[in-house]
Write a structure and sequence with these properties.
Helix content: under 10%
Strand content: 25-35%
Structural class: mainly beta
Shape: flat
Strand order of the largest sheet: 43-45-47-49-51-54
Radius of gyration: 27 Å
């Protein structure tokens, strides 16, 4: 096994664990899990993946702190040799020998309740992550340290009692624990780090104890119905369920599920980053008189926000920031006496109407100001990798024929010469491209950010092109280059199975993004290299890659439902980034058994924020182990 393969399995994530060493006597023969890579004595870390019981021999000294989060393993229990001097398993949970460190609570361990033993002083990062059975957790009274994302994405976790010695709730500690309803924090808690309770959408009353002196940005993004702060806390206060600094000059966090509109107190002159993000219950916001600058990033993923009433003395708006999820916004208002901005058709412009800053994406139709020259939103989507909203509810877009910069044809916005698609109405089901178009940025699918909420979205089921167009053509409602060599866009609502034409050798990476009607996809033999983002392909069940394809790399932002992935005999480069199936029973088959070398791009490292690196697999068996290591079946 190559050195680079070992690096894949170690992830090289700068993990520092006391007495960390090697599982040097663990192989597939010693575990019911699909695979545990065997390492030589010089390796520092080992990771495990697969399904079943993980059996650890006598020589293993430690465990990397990332298995539960970065690997899709379905480990249900851990067993450790009694001869092991460094590790111990109790009730299927992995600890250090002296029971002071809790390393791993199996993702498939099915107990509903768990109390961390009183001997434990340290819970490593990701220790409980992705467990879907645990409902009640009691922190051991002597726990002093809890690692990043230790309990993240425990989907059924409902109740937590945090009566321990740990003073810091780390970043992402309970992130995406969607069922979490109650948490009791002790008075010794001092710090709540970024994203600690992010998207804990079932939390009701969030109590901030007297000792808390630091709450970082996004700590409660999308969490809770109301905040309540201990009266003797010297740094924070609450008012009408909203979390503020003690003097109410700064708004720290707005409850994610608090319903209705909100009027910001005039005492507030500062709003923390992420204060309103993921606030799905917020329908209207009215700013107070002491806010002079508005950052649209404050409202990231406020999916039901319909109206923004801008502050009367507004002086600046930052619309160049990353934000998404404002598809319900119908109206922006502002005092007519404002010196810097104006309103036209519920849309925020500069005072002279030349620059459009905030677009009401939830309106059924949009009329642009006759004087407009620049649209900030369009400047952003020209960079397809910016995390900016692309969903809209427009059935048509209109603008005066006298405008010198833009024109609309059949409700679609173009540049004045009709050479560039600027903005496509989100409710349009069929689109015919004019012969003059040579820039299709406005119709391309795109993925903007880290979650499915940021996927470009439209309602197209058919695309056609005027035959006089010199650059583009359509076939069966799909958009190609004129020579059919490259596939650009597969309509998101087009239904059924699809096979790439034989003459097609290239495709846009986002061509099939959010293809909600696609059920099966066959990649033709002439597509040598495939790079696909299949995020949002909710009905896609089967992918077949024909012989002739060398590189196959796919990415999904959310869990899909793919049951079968068939690889042709010439695939020598494979990347599986994301969860292909909720039940994790995707069958991956390959005809590459006779190949001498297989290279794999480490999608795991990319997901972890590390740079991509090619890993050489010297044998077919190594490739099959990689696939099983990711938790899938291989045959």
């Amino acid at each position: 096994m190559s050195t680079r393969l070992k690096k894949l399995l170690a992830l090289s994530l700068s993990i520092s664990v006391a007495a960390t060493g090697l599982f040097n006597d663990i192989g597939a023969k010693n575990a019911d899990a699909a695979v545990v890579a065997k390492q030589n004595k010089n390796s520092r870390y080992i990771n495990f993946g697969g399904k079943g019981t993980l059996k650890i021999g006598s020589k293993a000294k430690g465990v990397a702190e990332n298995n539960a989060y970065f690997f899709n393993n379905h480990i249900s229990s851990v067993k450790v040799s009694k001869k092991n001097k460094y590790l111990k398993a109790q009730d299927g949970v992995l600890y250090s020998k002296n029971m002071k460190i809790l390393y791993y609570y199996p993702a498939m361990k099915q107990n509903k309740k768990f109390t961390i033993p009183s001997t434990v002083t340290r819970v490593v990062r990701y220790a409980f992550a992705n467990n879907n059975f645990l409902e009640q957790l009691n922190m051991g009274k002597n726990v002093k340290y809890v690692g990043t994302k230790a309990f993240s994405e425990c989907s059924r976790l409902k109740n937590i009692t945090w009566k321990c010695k740990a003073q810091t709730i780390p970043a992402g500690c309970f992130e995406k624990c969607h069922s979490l309803k109650n948490i009791k924090l002790g008075d010794n808690v001092k710090n709540i780090k970024t994203g600690a309770f992010k998207q804990c959408s079932s939390l009701n009353r969030i109590y901030i104890p007297r000792g808390v002196s630091e709450i970082e940005d996004y700590a409660f993004s999308g969490a809770g119905k109301e905040f309540f702060v201990a009266g003797n806390n010297i740094d924070y206060s609450s008012n009408k369920g909203v979390l503020f600094t003690k003097d109410m000059s700064g708004l720290v966090a707005y409850p994610g599920t608090k319903q209705g509109g909100y009027i910001l107190p005039d005492t507030v002159d500062d709003i923390c980053a992420g204060a309103f993000s993921n606030s799905v219950g917020l329908t209207e916001i009215t700013f107070g008189k002491n806010i002079y600058a508005v950052d649209m990033g404050w409202f990231d993923k406020c999916a039901n926000l319909k109206r923004i009433n801008m502050p009367p003395e507004l002086q600046s708006v930052d619309s160049y920031v990353e934000y998404s999820g404002l598809e319900s916004l119908e109206k922006v208002t502002l005092s007519e006496s404002n010196k810097y901005f104006s309103i036209y058709d519920d849309t925020l412009y500069s005072k002279d109407y030349k620059t459009l800053y905030v677009m009401p994406f939830g309106k059924s139709s949009l009329e642009l100001a006759p004087q407009v020259e620049s649209i900030v939103y369009l400047d952003m989507i020209n960079d397809r990798y910016k995390n900016v909203l692309t969903k809209n509810s427009f059935s048509e877009i209109n603008i005066s024929s006298q405008n010198q910069y833009f024109v609309t044809v059949d409700g679609v916005l173009y540049d004045k010469d009709i050479t560039k698609i600027m903005l496509l109405p989100g409710k349009m089901t069929s689109y015919k491209m004019p012969a003059t178009v040579n820039d299709i940025t406005g119709i391309l699918n795109g993925f903007f950010g880290e979650t499915e909420d940021n996927i470009a979205n439209n309602s197209l089921s058919d695309i056609s092109v005027e035959k006089e167009n010199l650059l583009y053509v359509s076939k069966d409602g799909v958009l190609f280059s004129k020579d059919m060599n490259k596939l650009y866009v597969y309509p998101q609502e087009k239904k059924g199975n699809y096979t790439l034409p034989d003459e097609t050798t290239l495709m846009d990476m986002f061509a099939f993004t959010e293809a909600r009607g696609l059920t099966g996809l066959t990649i033709s033999e002439n597509c040598d290299r495939i790079y696909m983002d299949i995020s949002g392909c909710a009905t896609l069940k089967k992918i077949t890659v024909k012989d002739g394809v060398d590189t196959f790399r796919i990415k999904a932002a959310e869990t899909l439902n793919i049951s079968s992935l068939k690889l042709g005999k010439d695939v020598s480069d494979i990347c599986l980034q994301g969860n292909l199936n909720k039940a994790h029973n995707t069958v991956i088959s390959s005809a590459t058994k006779g190949k001498d070398a297989v290279e794999v791009l480490t999608g795991i490292q990319a997901a972890a924020g590390e740079s991509d690196e090619e890993i050489e697999f010297l044998t077919f068996k190594d490739m099959s182990r990689y696939v099983e290591f990711m938790g899938y079946r291989f045959k």
